[in-house]
Amino acid sequence: MEIQLYNITKRFGEVTANDGISLDIRQGEVIALLGENGAGKSTLMKMLFGLYPPDEGSIIINGHETLIDSPQKAMSLGIGMVFQQFNLIPALSVLDNLLLAYPKPPFWTFRRLFGAGAPQRKVLAYLEELAPGLDPNTLVRDLSVGQRQLLELVKVLNLDAKVLILDEPTSVLPPQEAERLWGLIRKLSDAGRSIVLITHKMQDVMACAHRVVVMRSGRLIKTLSREDYNEASLVSLMMGDSNRRSEIDTTPLPEVTGRPPRVLIRNLHAHQGVQSIDDINLNIGAGEILGIAGVSGNGQLLLADALVGLASLTRGEVILDGITLHSASQAPKTSERIAYIPEQPAVNAVAGDLSLTTNVALSHFRQLSFFPAWEPEETLTLNIIHRYQVRPDNPALLAGQLSGGNLQKLVVGRELHGRPDLIVAAYPTMGLDAGAAHDIYQALFAKARDGAAVLWISEDLDDLMAYAHRIAVLQGGQVSGLFDPKTSNRLDIGRAMTGEKKTTTEHIPTPAEAHPRTAS
Amino acid sequence: MTSSTSPVLKFGLRLLAGPAGAVLVMAATFVAAALIFFAINGREALSLFHEMVMGAFGDGYSFSETLVKTAPILLTALAVALPARLGLISVGGEGQLYLGALFGTGAVLAAVEQPGWLLMPLMLTGAMAGGALWGVIPGLLKTRLGVNETISTLLLNYVGVLLVSFVVHGPWKNPNSLGWPATIEFPEGAILPQFFDTRVHMGLIFGVVAAIVLHILVTRSRWGLGLQVSRSNPRVGTTAGISYERNVLIVMAVGGLLAGLAGIAEASVIQNRLQDGLASGYGMTGFLVAWLAGQNFLRIIPLSVLMGGLLASADSLQLYAQLPKASADILQALLFITVLAVSSLWARRRAA
What we know:
heterodimer, A: alpha/beta, Rossmann fold, 3 domains, 6-stranded mixed β-sheet, 20 strands, 31% helix, globular, disordered C terminus, B: mainly alpha, ABC transporter involved in vitamin B12 uptake, BtuC, 0% strand, ABC_transp_permease (chain B), transmembrane transporter activity (chain B), membrane (chain B)
């Protein structure tokens, strides 16, 4: 199957997400669609998958111009897409999830009637091929992220997809699982399927792409074949002039001898729904950036909630500057000394039907007078809007009218203004373009330079290795390893993420013991 | 020619697409539905409708009767609208009204010998406490045990109504009433002030003042902001340090207190005693008014007057047209359905 995208343009309001993009997808080929977050890669592929129509341009399949107006249409044409967010039902088994997505048996066919019959074997055929060891009766909630992703892939293959679109598939995987996925992608392309790999990671491209298409701010910058590129040339194409990682100053503060760490996390236990954290012992010094690595869903968010005072502890305590802030004996309570950037700020940190100004004022709600004066709040909001380039820049708009990325910038700005003592940031740059991510890192780490303790949860090991002073890995709700990014390698951290080996946590140099470093 | 007429036409169309147009269409649809209802009953539809409007707003006396019925509707509507501002769906106005009457009457019976300056405040305090209690109980059930407030308020309505029934059949029954289940008549000092020789009483003033005060508090104050935030995103509210639990108790208590005032006003002014069937249906009417008004306290005031008029006119329908009393309920239902249908239709058209 040959697909040509011709001169595709897509606008969202004033933003041009795709600007006249032409691209062809050939049979049996792995194309990497490379670009920073916000470059327009996903938008382009969502149009091919029928999620929204292009404003201009056409899609030509096997020589015929084709209108793809729904994902159903795309799937009937043999185009399948695996998204970053999985579409699985955790309470059902692997087999049930596959059956739900399988088109052939009508809904009144009870699965029990299949027995070990032919339809079931058909549904499971790809699963056995891709993951031979996986029992189809396992509940999806017991699967690892990598296995869930495989399951999504099997669902798409079951629909007989000739063209597979994978949206940032390795962003959720630890290094070893990513390698396995690359192998799988090569195998599928050898079998004649075309694969579009949406990614912002160089390793993905180097590992399995036949061709790479570089996109930047909605435009196609260049299409290169395997022999025409190397990592360095791709980075500069992808970033343009915005490769500014080196400008971020994360030099640790000089340690004053005898000064205890600002934040002591002692013996922390908590559970909430299916998540739990057990026996977490960590400390964060003044100006220290403690990175939390780990495959998502291993207790990161609960740890953040427990530190902030949103989740109740079952045991242990959190001490800030010598004062017990949270303990198992008291009801959870938030404090204005702690700044919190939760994951998905658009969902977890703003009230969508209130104005931007109101949402900014929430960070110091307790200090507002009974009939709040709104002028200073509006001034503050305007400052944040300008500093972080929030669009549209009208503080009277309702938060729900802004895009997720812009809300994220607003929330970061809100949380980082003033002088928080502890900053808890969960995936603060997720989904943002390179420039915005850079601004956020700069602001966040500048607070560390001012003396705040920073706990930074991230899925991006590259970023963690570049900026964090220490990295703690969470696995199954426990700290499975504590690393100094300067002396550790990715694979060791990856092993701690999957729980293959417990790394000793006995001697970890504090930032000042190690040499003060300037960013590399 | 067309160039001169089209701007007018365009303006007209735009007006029709806005809220004014919606109200216009609502009124027209309701009138049409009411006329059809009368016609089905074999009456002279137009004259009956005229009779109805006159019965509600035609002269001083009818209008005063409309306002008499407005007061409890207004207060119970507020008792529903305030919790709704926190995202709670309370249907407990009726029970709170009865509890207000019960506790208020209890205070009157206990202090019946006292002079008016003491008796009146005691009665009102009792009424507010009773209503608030019937709001706080579902509030506590909600915050402590996670019991759905809609179910608990609904069920407590029955408890409230039957508690009143119990006391007037039993311990509080007036021995001289020849078996009629009611308390003794309220003494002079326990009858709320009325205006201009009509039955319009202080309860209406309480309602209007409460509506305005609540409107200011909810839209302007930090507390009101807290309610908005908690309703919109409870997690964000908790992070900002807004206590959802405390706010649940506050809105349920204040709402109950207002409905309790409605109850004691009915007992004191309208019935002069506590008896069965004190105010059947006001709580439910108040609920509907609150939702029709979109929980906007200021909009509740005119809507309560309108609904009071509808109830008042039912009396005149009975009198002049020999239509059963239930026709008022039917007209009320027609009005609600019309308003809800038209407003949803307009909202959908605006979204499209």
